[in-house]
Amino acid sequence: MKTFAFALGLALGAGGAHAHAHDAAPAPGGLHPKADAKVQADFDIVHARIAVEGHVATFRMSVSGKAGKTRPTATGKLAGSRVFSYVWPTTLDPYEVGFEHGAGILALAVTAHPDFDDTPLYDENADGKRGNDGNLWHSHWVVLKPNAACGPKALAVVDIPEGTKPRLPKTWPGLPLLLDSPGWNPTFDGGTVEVKVAFDDIGALAASHFDGVTAGLRVNQSVHAPLLCVANVFKVASGDLSLPGTPGQ
Length: 249
Hints:
four-stranded antiparallel sheet; 2 helices; globular
């Protein structure tokens, strides 16, 4: 856990996060940072939690405003387009969800982005067409690593180099990224967003640690590696990316 926390702390420390490390309570009750007027309310985390019941984990995040209210404005092109996200970074080995062992920092993310589709297997707005509306909120597993090409101390979703064939989940959307589109539908209720995820081995998750992050990502202007960078961190639940949360009841 210390290696992951250190990497995340380095990568996000200069990204605009508002630190409240002493306000965040340890899990299993979750992390409880204080509201921060400097953070846009719908990304101002006041509670982050992973609840476990049977083989299902509920990833939950509450903000001081209305969760999911703001989505990126469409630019009409992929290069430079934006992604808004609610993210639970974890110490869970990416292998547990279908990637290679130790591939990077595994995080569950609820995202919205109007300029590209990364859910080709699913019809998100029930119009009979698959993968046609990336600007609706949807979920991903993403694997992150620090990448200097995104900026000093910045994170990126890990690229898949051309010609390589790493282990990938069955619901990988075909993009050259360590990103999965498992179809876990997020739900929004006032200030709270949550996602229910079923695990074959819930014990691996229960033994892990997590944090909560709200962030903006950006597609590289050259649309080359790194393809997707973490461009702006809005808030970190623990304040210092120490991943102090423990999944629980």
